[in-house]
Design goal:
Bound molecules: adenosine-5'-triphosphate, magnesium ion
Number of strands: 8
Shape: globular
Order of helices and strands: EHEHEHHEHHEHHEEEHH
CATH class: Alpha Beta
CATH superfamily: HUPs
Number of helices: 10
Radius of gyration: 17 Å
Strand order of the largest sheet: 3-2-1-4-5-8-7-6
Length: 215
């Protein structure tokens, strides 16, 4: 089976995430597992809604989609969430399956700062989804975001829209329907009493309001 691991804060999950997962699945995957981070270094923990509630919102959002699942492994692990640790655990859980890590363009551009970035990129395929209309015109330029020790070895495949890291592993750049939605905007809208209708599933909106998550 081809399995996508979709990591993020998901504070809250929205249609940008869901559509990205859908298009990645249509093109490459049998299922997508949403993995909310417990704590991330780049986001002030005090501001982040409890990881269990973020997972709960994901579960509400994906409940009618058979290809989508969620995982609490980063929550169970506790502490700061590193994608590397998650990839190692997934490889153990799914030894016979083909694993892909899904990231948005913005997250990909920070990949050098990830823990064990080279190791992750050498271990599983990546699907980088576009977050702006411009996305991925210049693959050679995008190679610049890779760790230095990888840059030299990759083969850029312009037709396939991918980097071949080595024989079995690649970074795929997938142009998707760009939905200019972010969790930050959604949180600000809630704070300022601005409508969030059609930016995220209605049932998630209700859950947020009932639990006063962002007011
Ligand atoms: P925040 O504004 O809090 O950073 P976000 O909307 O960027 O939230 P994250 O939880 O940071 O959401 O994102 C998780 C993953 O989903 C990242 O890889 C990110 O690039 C990707 N992503 C987020 N929003 C979109 C979108 N609208 N389209 C495509 N990918 C997205
Ligand atoms: Mg983000």
């Amino acid at each position: 089976m081809r399995i996508g691991i979709f990591g993020g804060t998901f504070n809250p999950v929205h249609y940008g995430h869901l559509r990205a997962a859908e298009e990645a699945a249509v093109k490459f995957l049998d299922k997508v597992v949403f993995v909310p981070a417990h704590i991330t270094l780049d986001k002030v923990p005090a501001q982040a809604v409890n990881s269990k509630l973020r997972l709960e919102m994901i579960n509400i959002a994906i409940k009618d989609n058979r290809k989508f699942e969620s995982s609490d492994i980063e929550i169970k692990r506790g502490g700061i969430s590193y994608s590397y640790d998650t990839v190692v655990q997934f490889k153990k859980m799914y030894p016979g399956d083909e694993l892909y890590f899904i990231v948005g363009e913005d997250a990909y551009k920070h990949i050098k700062s990830w823990k064990n970035a080279s190791a992750i990129l050498n271990e599983i395929n990546f699907i980088v989804v576009s977050r702006s209309k411009l996305g991925f015109k210049n693959l050679a330029k995008l190679a610049g975001f890779l760790p230095d020790n990888l840059k030299e070895n990759i083969v850029i495949d312009y037709n396939g829209n991918r980097f071949a890291m080595h024989r079995n592993i690649a970074v795929y750049f997938l142009k998707i329907t760009v939905l200019d939605i972010s969790s930050t905007d959604i949180r600000n809208n809630f704070k300022n009493n601005i409508s969030n209708l059609f930016l995220l599933p209605n049932e998630v909106i209700k859950y947020i309001i009932n639990n006063k998550l962002y007011s």
